[in-house]
User: What shape does this take?
Amino acid sequence: MPSLGADMEAGTLVEWMVKPGDRVKRGDIVAVVETQKGAIEIEIFETGQVDQMLVNVGTKVPVGTPLARIRSDQEAVAGLAAPPQVAEVTGPAVALAAAPTMPLPGAPRPQIVVAVGAGGRIRASPAARRLASTRGIDLSAVVGSGPFGAVIRVDVERSGAVVTPPAEKRRAIGLDLNAMRAAIAAAMARSKREIPHYYLEHQVDMTGCEEFLSRVNAGRPPENRLLMGALAVKAVAAAARRFPAFNGFYQDGQFTASPEVHTGVAIAIRGGGLAAPAIHDSDQLTLDDLMARMHDLIQRVRAGRIRSSEMADSTITVSSLGERGVEALFGIIYPPQVAIVGFGKVVVRPWIVDGSVVPRSVVTVTLAADHRVSDGHAGGLFLAEIGKLLQEPDKL
Amino acid sequence: MSNVDVEAVLREELGNIAPEVDLKTIDASADLREALDIDSMDFLNFITAIHHRLGLDIPEIDYPKLVTLGGAVRYLRGKLG
Assistant: This one.
């Protein structure tokens, strides 16, 4: 069970997307897990063959519990007498969640924990495992009659006992807005309790961005058009790259700046939910790629299908009110992050340009940042940098 | 294509975006973004769907004509001829 956020302690397996014997490759979605944040699709970061499911559908298990065993390609298929090395789908609070979808060349990638067949591993034939899995029989309770005491199919067939009852009735997969509200409340209460926030605001002329979007979008079909939100996320990501004190995690009494910029994008869910999944390496993406990612992410969040790699490890968050609502939003930092940047709606205001008062499109950008890590002086420079970057949208 | 029921297409696509809203209650002159609580991404999805369903080019500069149901019906009927 991967950790899908600092506040997650357990998750419920609601669906297996693969079965024993299936081939899987890195990035495949192998399971769906329900958390307080909704149903999350769990990706695998190993290529090989599914060997055995270790957790039944409907079971709630703590973070770090192995969900399944994968036989990786490098390992020869061994016989019963020599249990093969297997990789577990999940190690201690791993890995599945932490790996960026597009790792930089040479960047360290979390490895899936490899469990050698020592200790708890039960010797059993593949047929016995399959049967035990489909019948929900705990193999450890079956007496084996095969070589070296291995459990073979007939042993499982004879074993009437030890059927693990489903832990809870299978529920519909999807968003539970009440649970999501509880998760938001827990994270925000912790933030307000622990993080000494300071707040800054800055008015930014967005007329150039609007002109840029009109020009770029004029010749494009609707599905390829850019939205202002993509410019905002890119500007924040680029500024965060230059101001590392706003991009990273505060944990165990100290701040660690992140070498990557994974911008969490706050997405409102109809009916009153909120999630802020990460767009990995958002400072490296072109505006078109960023827009495509945001489009995809928003659709999946609203459909209740978020991927595991997106739910953890945002290094900074952007929250935007869009084109309706009010002019400013003062965010609450999502721990263990140390900053959140808010965008209000763009409004037309009298503005002075070259000594004359002219109507310009203006947005209020705010920063809430962690005073344990940075001061208002640095925050002001960071916020001003975002404003400067938005004056040259064609360079974003 | 000129016989297509533009309003039915619009209501269907809006229903895809805001499935919990009873579209019968939506006033033809109400701002759809307010009435249906849709954001800029929803609106872009709506325009994209209409573009594909009706085969019409809908430039960004015309978006203000599409923010009410009544306005959108008039605009799209006009474009369909």
Q: What stands out?
A: The domain at 6-80 of chain B is CATH 1.10.1200.10 (Non-ribosomal Peptide Synthetase Peptidyl Carrier Protein; Chain A). Chain B has a mean pLDDT of 88.
